[in-house]
Design a protein that fits this description.
Length: 370
């Protein structure tokens, strides 16, 4: 194996595939990156058995071949080299020589036959979903944060991707809040898949870094999904199980409705959170009376009161929240005006658009004493 390429091109490819490298494994080969040189291309691959990433770049191929290099060491060496042409070759003793005009490294290479098969998915048009790259990235940002981070919680560590009625719906929940994001999309057939929120966030990072020219494609089989982002392929394992019937959770009634400026609410909650963090459960209390929303928080360090002018219809209400759950929603939505709907002090709050139904966020309250 021998090839030459530009340092920056290799660095960018390593940044992409390294997202699938794991240090928490007893299988040494999984700490490595596969280098496969053939037909004028260098194909880099890494896998942690949950997500596999393959990236191809153009190189000058002198001799075809393949090897596995330790990801951290190889990446650190390439990043530290000057921005010029690099020569990489496998010597007769099995070691990998990395050479520039004034630098030379010799590192251990591992047998590529031991690298796990990333697996193939038949790319049938009937099982293909096509996403606008910016819309997909935005939907991931607006939903994945609401998924559970507790790996023991089963499918709710994932995001439901529901293709139905010419819409893509993405739903995430963790038992304390829920995010529902909807976008129009041409759907050939109705289907649901559940993808780990952590892996979806990696997909979003790749889209941001790769800046693909084309739409993002997803090809599905029974247990895996292949995601194509220009010259990058990502294969990830789908979560198995039945997702919660989220439509049954959405409130059917409201006794209080508040139209509010998002930035006003966000700034007030961030200030109130300075003391809420000193207390228990990031607790803030909202008192909605007339056209005034009063946010208060108390701790041993002191207390705070914030007032916001709102447009209210319906009854007055006093309700408590973990400030983080409200703040997380306000950080990802773009609309400047929002609608907050309440039923009782122990019922979830619904945050949505003034008009339309592109998103709905549900936040459970915290019981408070009057």
């Amino acid at each position: 194996m021998k090839f030459t390429c530009e340092q920056q091109s290799l660095v960018k490819a390593l940044n992409t595939v390294s997202k699938a490298v794991t240090s928490r494994t007893t299988i040494p080969i999984l700490k490595g990156i596969l280098l496969n040189v053939k037909k004028g291309k260098l194909v880099l691959a890494a896998s942690d058995l949950e997500i596999s990433i393959e990236k191809s770049i153009d190189v000058n191929v002198i001799e075809e071949g393949s090897t596995v290099v330790m990801a951290r060491l190889f990446s650190d060496i390439i990043r530290k080299l000057p921005n010029e042409e690099i020569s990489i070759s496998q010597e007769s003793n099995g070691k990998i020589m990395i050479k520039t005009a004034f630098s030379e490294f010799n590192i251990v290479g591992l047998n590529s036959d031991e690298f796990p098969s990333i697996g193939n998915i038949v790319e049938e048009e009937t099982d293909k979903l096509v996403f606008d790259k910016d819309i997909l990235k935005d939907m991931i940002r607006k939903s994945s944060f609401a998924a559970s981070a507790d790996e023991s919680k089963g499918v709710i560590v994932g995001v439901l991707m529901e293709c139905k009625d010419n819409h893509l719906n993405m739903v995430a929940l963790d038992g304390f809040r829920m995010a529902v994001i909807r976008e129009k999309m041409i759907v050939d057939k109705e289907q649901n898949i559940i993808v780990s929120a952590k892996l979806l966030n990696e997909i979003s990072k790749i889209i941001s870094e790769e800046e693909p020219q084309n739409d993002v494609e997803m090809i599905l089989d029974n247990k895996k999904a292949l995601i194509k982002i220009d010259s990058t392929k990502v294969i990830l394992r789908l979560l198995e199980g039945q997702f919660i019937k989220y439509r049954d959770i959405l409130p059917k009634e409201k006794k209080c409705s508040v139209k509010i400026i998002r930035s006003d609410l966000q700034n007030s909650i961030e200030r109130a959170s300075l003391l809420a963090k000193e207390g228990k459960n990031n607790l803030i209390k909202m008192n909605i009376a007339g056209n005034l929303l009063t946010i208060t928080s108390k701790s041993e360090e002191g207390d705070v009161k914030e007032e916001i002018i709102v447009e209210k219809t319906g009854e007055d209400i006093i309700i408590g929240f973990n400030s983080k759950y409200i703040s997380d929603v306000l950080k990802v939505v773009d609309e400047e005006e929002l609608l907050m709907e309440f039923n009782t002090p122990t019922s979830p709050c619904l945050i949505k658009q003034i008009e339309g139904s592109r998103f709905e966020y549900l936040v459970l309250p915290v019981r408070i004493t009057a």
